[in-house]
Amino acid sequence: MGAEMKVVGVIGAGQMGAGIAQLAAVSGADVWILDKDVGALKNAKMSIYDSVQRFVSKGQLDKEVGNNAIARLQYTSNLEDLRSADIVIEAIVENEDVKKKLFAELDKIVKGSAILASNTSSISITRLATSTNRPHQVIGMHFMNPPPIMKLVEIIRGADTSDETFNATKKLAERFGKIVVCSKDYSGFIVNRILMPMINEAFHALYTGVATKEDIDAGMKLGTNQPMGPLQLADFIGLDVCLSIMKVLQAGLGDIKYAPCPLLVQYVDAGRLGKKRGIGVYNYRKSPKL
Ligand SMILES: NC(=O)c1ccc[n+]([C@@H]2O[C@H](COP(=O)([O-])OP(=O)(O)OC[C@H]3O[C@@H](n4cnc5c(N)ncnc54)[C@H](O)[C@@H]3O)[C@@H](O)[C@H]2O)c1
């Protein structure tokens, strides 16, 4: 069924949606990319163009394939344009009510055979599926950031996701050149379930004065062969995102061990959200080091 997926819809033209749309177009699909914000569509168009050119100039993508991919992308703010999609991959804001409303609208617009996939990091696929009349065709397709570079796609099966939907989605992710892991629909899935408690524990180590931030990061980087330490990684992900995922783990799994570290909470309260704000655990501004 993956090979039959000729038309891919992507909703949300932000960081993730633009990358997913690029992958779909390079894999040979006709792609509709939708955002309610016209500025986001313009930015996505530029970032996809730049990214494709980078792959071409590095010799990682054939020039003609790249040009054809760019030509296959269509940009819209009108949901009706997604009518012909074989699969729609949603990558809008991480808000359950907003996503549910979108899924309910999409369910009425797209053809009966279409799959509705969500790139959510933490929201229950089973609950999203209840806003549609096709819960067996709703699935999680969790790309890592940035999608064109990162090899993994976590596929999440909701309580009612069918084998046919799973197989077609897996085939499509493989057509995008990705390696698939399959998770059941429990909070955090696989990667965030393990990564976020590790980051939270690094905050506890800092909070309780076990070591300096530099030594915590160097210890994990060099001692466990990770490309960067957990505190630096938290800054890259965004401390607000880390905090919100810890809250999802705590609420969804009901275990006190997932309680966010008070230091993480305090940094977020102080607006120290990480690299995107110029300051998180580390200071990325030019002013003196913290
Ligand atoms: N950023 C990451 O590292 C990452 C990694 C994996 C998964 N995710 C998930 O991917 C999704 C998108 O994240 P992002 O970082 O790309 O966000 P983003 O803020 O960069 O982009 C979201 C886009 O969605 C648009 N949007 C919001 N509501 C909309 C609606 N109702 N209809 C149409 N467009 C709408 C916004 O205008 C924006 O352009 C979230 O669910 C997030 O949890 C993010």
Automatic annotation (TrEMBL):
<comment type="pathway">
    <text>Lipid metabolism; fatty acid beta-oxidation.</text>
</comment>
<feature type="binding site">
    <location>
        <position position="121"/>
    </location>
    <ligand>
        <name>CoA</name>
    </ligand>
</feature>
<feature type="binding site">
    <location>
        <position position="145"/>
    </location>
    <ligand>
        <name>NAD(+)</name>
    </ligand>
</feature>
<feature type="domain" description="3-hydroxyacyl-CoA dehydrogenase C-terminal">
    <location>
        <begin position="188"/>
        <end position="284"/>
    </location>
</feature>
<feature type="site" description="Important for catalytic activity">
    <location>
        <position position="142"/>
    </location>
</feature>
<dbReference type="InterPro" id="IPR013328">
    <property type="entry name" value="6PGD_dom2"/>
</dbReference>
<dbReference type="InterPro" id="IPR036291">
    <property type="entry name" value="NAD(P)-bd_dom_sf"/>
</dbReference>
<feature type="binding site">
    <location>
        <position position="121"/>
    </location>
    <ligand>
        <name>NAD(+)</name>
    </ligand>
</feature>
<dbReference type="GO" id="GO:0006631">
    <property type="term" value="P:fatty acid metabolic process"/>
</dbReference>
<feature type="binding site">
    <location>
        <position position="35"/>
    </location>
    <ligand>
        <name>NAD(+)</name>
    </ligand>
</feature>
<dbReference type="InterPro" id="IPR006108">
    <property type="entry name" value="3HC_DH_C"/>
</dbReference>
<comment type="similarity">
    <text>Belongs to the 3-hydroxyacyl-CoA dehydrogenase family.</text>
</comment>
<dbReference type="GO" id="GO:0004300">
    <property type="term" value="F:enoyl-CoA hydratase activity"/>
</dbReference>
<dbReference type="InterPro" id="IPR006180">
    <property type="entry name" value="3-OHacyl-CoA_DH_CS"/>
</dbReference>
<dbReference type="InterPro" id="IPR022694">
    <property type="entry name" value="3-OHacyl-CoA_DH"/>
</dbReference>
<keyword id="KW-0520">NAD</keyword>
<feature type="binding site">
    <location>
        <position position="99"/>
    </location>
    <ligand>
        <name>NAD(+)</name>
    </ligand>
</feature>
<keyword id="KW-0560">Oxidoreductase</keyword>
<comment type="similarity">
    <text>In the central section; belongs to the 3-hydroxyacyl-CoA dehydrogenase family.</text>
</comment>
<protein>
    <submittedName>
        <fullName>3-hydroxyacyl-CoA dehydrogenase family protein</fullName>
    </submittedName>
</protein>
<feature type="binding site">
    <location>
        <position position="276"/>
    </location>
    <ligand>
        <name>NAD(+)</name>
    </ligand>
</feature>
<dbReference type="InterPro" id="IPR008927">
    <property type="entry name" value="6-PGluconate_DH-like_C_sf"/>
</dbReference>
<feature type="binding site">
    <location>
        <position position="58"/>
    </location>
    <ligand>
        <name>CoA</name>
    </ligand>
</feature>
<dbReference type="Pfam" id="PF00725">
    <property type="entry name" value="3HCDH"/>
</dbReference>
<feature type="binding site">
    <location>
        <position position="94"/>
    </location>
    <ligand>
        <name>NAD(+)</name>
    </ligand>
</feature>
<feature type="domain" description="3-hydroxyacyl-CoA dehydrogenase NAD binding">
    <location>
        <begin position="8"/>
        <end position="185"/>
    </location>
</feature>
<feature type="binding site">
    <location>
        <begin position="12"/>
        <end position="17"/>
    </location>
    <ligand>
        <name>NAD(+)</name>
    </ligand>
</feature>
<dbReference type="GO" id="GO:0070403">
    <property type="term" value="F:NAD+ binding"/>
</dbReference>
<dbReference type="GO" id="GO:0016616">
    <property type="term" value="F:oxidoreductase activity, acting on the CH-OH group of donors, NAD or NADP as acceptor"/>
</dbReference>
<dbReference type="Pfam" id="PF02737">
    <property type="entry name" value="3HCDH_N"/>
</dbReference>
<feature type="binding site">
    <location>
        <position position="51"/>
    </location>
    <ligand>
        <name>CoA</name>
    </ligand>
</feature>
<dbReference type="InterPro" id="IPR006176">
    <property type="entry name" value="3-OHacyl-CoA_DH_NAD-bd"/>
</dbReference>
